[in-house]
């Protein structure tokens, strides 16, 4: 399974804000609405980068993409341990991981970003998502 590069978001904007975005697109400042929104988000993230970096460190979050395979989780269970997963970005639990194995291996999940798992694993870990 290919890991996606992006996550789709849906947002609601007031008509005046939307019209202003369309005006900037029409006048060539941005190629389309999505380009404007991505640029605005990046600008805000840059503005608050120090705060985000400190929070990432304080919360002991892994930054980026983290994939958990069946082999990874079986090793954790074999060692008699459980994981406290803390990811800022994308966390993926492979499709061949059973809900039972996920429950045995994962004590808690804190995901700031996106979690890609099967519906069965998501249901099995629902009480461990924070």
Describe the SSE topology.
Elements: H1 15-26, H2 33-47, H3 49-58, E1 62-68, H4 70-78, E2 83-93, H5 99-105, E3 106-116, H6 119-124
Parallel strand pairs: 1-2, 2-3
Helix pairs in contact: 4-5
What are the defining features of this structure?
3 strands, alpha/beta, 22% strand, 45% helix, 130 residues, elongated
Number of helices: 6
Main β sheet profile = 3 strands, parallel
Number of strands: 3
Strand order of the largest sheet: 1-2-3
- Domain module tally: 2
SSE string, helices as H and strands as E: HHHEHEHEH
Average per-residue pLDDT, rounded, comes to 93
Protein name: CopG family transcriptional regulator
InterPro entries: Arc_rbn_hlx_hlx, RHH_8, Ribbon_hlx_hlx
What does this structure look like?
Helix 4 packs across helix 5. It is built from 6 helices and 3 strands, in the order αααβαβαβα. The chain has 2 domains: 15-47, no CATH class; 52-128, no CATH class. The chain is α/β, with parallel strands linked by helices. This is CopG family transcriptional regulator. It comes from Bosea rubneri. It holds the Pfam family RHH_8.
